[in-house]
Structures are given as C-alpha cells and as structure tokens.
Amino acid sequence: MARNIGIDLGTANTIVYVKGKGIVLREPSVVAIEERTKKVVAVGNEAKLMLGKTPGSIVAMRPLSDGVIAEFDFTTAMLRDFFKKASGTSLFSGPRVVVCVPYGVTEVEKRAVEDVTLEAGAQKVALIEEPIAAAIGSGLKVEDARGSMIVDMGGGTTEVAVTSLGGIVLSKSLRIAGDELDEAIVNYIKKKHNILIGEVTAEMLKKKIGSVHPAVDKGYMEIQGRNLLNGLPAIINVSSAEVREAMHEQIVHIIEAIRSTLENTPPELAADIYDNGIMLAGGGALLGGLDALISYVTGIKVTIAKNPLDSVAIGIGHVIESIGDISDIVQFRNRGSR
Questions:
Q1: Single pTM value for the model
Q2: Which residue from 76, 154, 164, 203 puts its CA 20 to 30 A from 13's CA?
C-alpha cells in the first residue's frame, strides 16, 4: 500500500509525518561514515552521539548545509533509513512524499531534493515552500485575503515571509540560523576564554541559558572544554549575558531581515500584520526573549507557535490530511521522470 508522507528535511533535524498517523519520526540530520570506504555506519540519534567523539576512521557529519543538500549520497542513505523507520512493521510500496524547501533555493537545489528523495525510495515527490508549511502548521489562515507574517528560524535557514491568498507575497531567506548561532558561541568562548568547545556544548549553552534580551537571562552554566594555552581539559562558568553577546551579530541580521520585509510590504497587508501580529516558529522561537526583542524593534505583537519545533511538519501534514487528492495543490514528480 502506498502512503502519503511529509518530510521536514532540516539542516539540524528531520521530521517525518505519515498520513493517518501524524509525526512518527524526529531525528537529527546526521550520518556517521567510515572514512575509507564511505560506508554509512549510523544515522540520526545514534550518529549525533558520535559528533566530536569518533575515532579517526569514522566521521560524523551533517549531509545538509544551510537548508540545502551538501552530500547527495549521504542524504539519500539518511532518508532511506528514515523511510524504513517510519514504515514500522507495515510494508508499503514507494510512498508519495511531500518535502519542504526554503523559499530562496535555486532550481538546481530544488531538483537535488527531488532526486535524493526519489533515490531514497519514494515513488513520487513534490515540494512545498517552507514558509507556507510553517504558517499552516502555526495556525495562520494563509488562504485568507488578509496578510500574515511568519518568521521560521530553523537550524540552517531563517525564513521571513508575508503570505496572503495561499501564496507568498514577499520573503527573505537567510542562511543565518541555529547552526550559525552555535558557531558564534564556539568562536566567542575560544576568543574570550581560550577554551575550545564542540558544537554540541555550544548548542546546550544556547538552549539552556541562551537569551537575546536581558529580562530573560537564565544565570550561569558550567561547561567543559580544552584549554588552548596548555592543551588540558578545563571547566568554566558561562553566563547568559555572554551567550547573548556571542550571538549578537547574527541576531541583528535576523532582526534587520524582519524589519526590511515589513518596510517592503504593501500598505494594506502591513495593516493586517499590525493587527494580527507576527508568528514565530522553528527552534529559534524557543530562544529566550526573541519574541520580546522582535516586538520591541517592530512595535508589533509577536506570538510563538504552539509547537514551534514541529510547525513545518504539522503544516505539511495538514496538506496531506485535509485534501483528498493532494496532487490538486502540489505537483508530483514521478520516479524516472526528467
């Protein structure tokens, strides 16, 4: 039996939605490979545990970068594994798959997503723009003639979009998001404390004490790293204020993208957004004080989506579940078609 499956193929995490079942899989977009043979030895949760801890013969890496496919074969292997996990004990023929893509990707990058999904075992594949899926999954009435604004901050990209009548009126796609924040934290700790930490530790700092507004600072967190002066293990305490300072430049770029989008929004739609507010989705929505900062800068109320981490997958799921024949709203490409 063929099934309809939705995939939020993210730089940091991949979420799989199966029609009639909901979200059935949520795992990191990470693969571990044997460097000499290029054989995939672990995928998802198991592979992420290996980040920064693998022996010389094994490399744990992310096959997607900034929201697009960087390693075709490894992304294929990862998706094939996720399809197998999502099928559970039931057997079904190649599924029809709807995959989200960032709004700003090129036709070549879109084609790569289609190719990798078909190669992984899909019978048919269709693409949906990430801002539309995030808006639907956040509860916005995108089909209405009123303007809505969605800010979806994921691992690889931040999507800022104004929607109306089921489409995107204007949008900005920044390749500045969660991964760049983690990298900024690593560089800050290295420069200020002469301590080298890994991306997993940086992500923990961001999630546990990260903030972009002093009013929501969360104190200190003890972390371990390597002292760059003597090469020995070291323990330091890092404050929320330091994490905020580390992320400052990237956050400024995101705020400027939001402000620029608002400045270019047609007056009628801008009035709707002022009334309705801005919807914040993606993992970045959980960053302490981000909603308050956006509201302060724009003068517009900001609402965090009910399930920000799953907004895109829920949006794809809504498309799959609510339409009898989803080919009415998304165009599928069949396996073997060119």
A1: 0.88
A2: 164
